[in-house]
Specification:
397 residues, alpha/beta, Aspartate Aminotransferase, domain 1, seven-stranded mixed beta sheet, five-stranded mixed beta sheet, 12 strands, 41% helix, globular
Length: 397
């Protein structure tokens, strides 16, 4: 074969080297949109599903798969499917559960604002109805499921932003007794505190942007489920195209390696911060499952098995005004006002302005999300430094 042109050499030089006989310690980042095989029959077998492999990034990627397997291991699940964001994961789980016009959804009223908007607006415009309930009132949930006959019951293990704790074992029993599947957004709890599938959930959903990745540099989502449900989600993903990229998957996989260490520290810090906030005259109420006065304190202790009560809390400022919240947040020096959570950094957010803005003031008030509510994600800094920053910011209130 004659020597090829420099144009061809520039394109193909260094590629398709012999396969090495070593393995890298961490999973590599496979930055390729497609994969080739020595045999076209192998390629055809992968396309047909009779052989495990990769052909096109929308169908799967080795780095993404490694992240999925790590999540499945943490959740004690048969499989997991990764997505480009937490909201993509919520939507995918709902679709895989079979929601449609004649099979509605029963959902906790106290959920993340974007989840509420997805159900109350986007899916409603497609003819898919949602019945919102107080997820802590099991009699109300049971009655709603019997009346609506949903295909899916959706809740958060620890709710955003009021920190209500869902009785997942009982909810699973109620849902399954009525032919529905239980979908649990376990972002706040993480598998460190709770393995939702062990408790009776059919889908465990995570915004991996948060605690799983843990460093504020990834947008990702993931759903853990049975092999059968995951296979359905993968087929749908080929069409939806909401795939997680390999770089994001690698960062999330790296973050998972320190998840238990981070969560142990963050839960301990959050408990101390919550205890301290309850004694501050500028704070009217603190929402944290680790406080004995929390309505689901005993349930949380039972579900979380002594590992902690999470790293999220919220509190109402005295006076309950937007101006008071803005002033407090602007005086913070260490704690960052950011529209996210679950980072190594301590963060605060004003739900009325960001996460629950789309709900409107009347609906927020009805749900208990007042104008003075602040949500806090407690980080891994020294807890005395976190409290000192809160103290100086509250002192001028």
């Amino acid at each position: 074969m004659k020597e090829t042109s420099i144009f061809t050499q520039a394109v193909h030089g260094g590629e398709r080297a012999p396969r090495p006989d070593f393995r890298p310690v961490p999973t590599p980042i496979y930055r390729s949109s497609s994969f080739v095989y020595d045999s076209l029959q192998d390629l055809d077998d992968v396309f047909s599903g009779s052989k495990v492999g990769y052909v096109y990034a929308r169908y799967g990627n080795p780095t993404v798969h490694a992240f999925e397997m790590a999540v499945a291991a943490l959740e004690g699940a048969e499989d997991a499917v990764a997505y480009s964001s937490g909201m993509a994961a919520v939507y995918a789980a709902l679709m895989a559960a079979g929601v449609r016009a004649d099979r509605p959804v029963v959902c906790a009223a106290d959920v993340y604002g974007a989840t509420y908007a997805l159900l109350a607006k986007t899916l409603a415009e497609l003819g898919i109805a949602t019945r919102f309930v107080d997820i802590t009132n099991l009699a109300e949930v049971d009655a709603a499921i019997k009346e609506a006959q949903p295909t899916a019951v959706l809740c958060e293990a620890i709710s955003n932003p009021l920190m209500k704790v869902a009785d997942i074992p009982r909810l699973g029993e109620i849902a399954h007794r009525n032919g529905a599947q239980l979908l649990v957004d376990a972002t706040f709890a993480t598998p460190y505190l709770l393995r939702s599938l062990y408790c009776g959930a059919d889908f465990a959903i995570h915004s991996a942007t948060k605690y799983l990745a843990g460093h504020g540099d990834v947008l990702a989502g993931v759903v853990a489920a049975s092999n059968e449900r995951a296979a359905l989600m993968r087929e749908q993903l080929k069409v939806f195209g909401a795939n997680l990229g390999p770089e994001e998957a690698w960062l999330a996989l790296r973050g998972i390696k320190t998840l238990p260490l981070r969560m142990r520290e963050q839960c301990a810090n959050a408990q101390k911060v919550a205890d301290w906030l309850t004694s501050q005259p500028q704070v009217a109420r603190v929402n944290y499952p680790g406080l004995p006065e929390h309505p689901q304190y005993s349930l949380a202790a039972s579900l979380f098995g002594g590992a902690g009560y999470g790293a999220m809390l919220s509190f109402d400022m005295q006076g309950g005004t937007r101006e008071a919240v803005f002033g407090f947040m602007q005086r913070l020096r260490l704690i960052q006002p950011a529209t996210t959570l679950g980072d190594v950094y301590s963060l605060v957010l004003y739900p009325a302005m960001s996460s629950h803005r789309a709900l409107g003031p009347e609906l927020r008030a009805e749900l208990g999300i007042g104008e003075g509510l602040v949500r806090m994600s407690v980080g891994i800094e020294a807890v005395d430094d976190i409290i000192a920053d809160l103290q100086q910011a509250l002192a001028a209130s």
